[in-house]
């Protein structure tokens, strides 16, 4: 099953992709640039998607967090030494299997 965000991108996303976009948007350490790189959605597109998908109170909580000093959703707020999209301690994924430590 595919869902559309035609007003935003003209592209269809699977349910799994939409869930991943929401997950990435909620993660404080995942910048909007990572979402742009992976799904070709701008920050504005992500905000529109989150507004449509989340309950109003959840959306307001998310926006407040994104705009706070806690979140590093914008590369300008991040330490310049961080040049990756994921935590260095995150497991590597190879061949659709999570590699053992």
Description:
The chain is mainly alpha-helical. Helices cover 42% and strands 10% of the residues. It is built from 4 helices and 4 strands, in the order E-E-H-H-H-H-E-E. The strands form 2 sheets. A two-stranded antiparallel ribbon has the order 1-2. It is globular, with a radius of gyration of 15 Å.
Give me the number of helical elements: 4
* Computed structural class: mainly alpha
Strand count, sense and barrel status of the largest sheet are: 2 strands, antiparallel
Strand order of the largest sheet: 1-2
Overall 3D form: globular
- How much helix, percentage-wise, in residues? 40-55%
Q: Count the strands?
A: 4
Q: What oligomeric state is this?
A: single chain
Please report which band the strand proportion falls in: under 5%, 5-15%, 15-25%, 25-35%, 35-45% or over 45%.
Answer: 5-15%
Are there runs of 5+ residues with pLDDT below 50, and where? none
User: Mean pLDDT across all residues, rounded?
Assistant: 75
Order of helices and strands: EEHHHHEE
Through-space gap between termini:
35 Å
Radius of gyration: 15 Å
How is the topology of this model organized?
Blueprint: E1 2-4, E2 12-14, H1 15-26, H2 32-39, H3 43-53, H4 56-66, E3 93-94, E4 97-98
Helix pairs in contact: 1-2
List the main descriptive attributes of the protein structure presented here.
globular, mainly alpha, two-stranded antiparallel ribbon, 4 strands, 101 residues
Entry summary:
The chain has 101 residues and is mainly alpha-helical. The protein has helices spanning 15-26, 32-39, 43-53, 56-66; strands spanning 2-4, 12-14, 93-94, 97-98. It starts with a strand and ends with a strand.
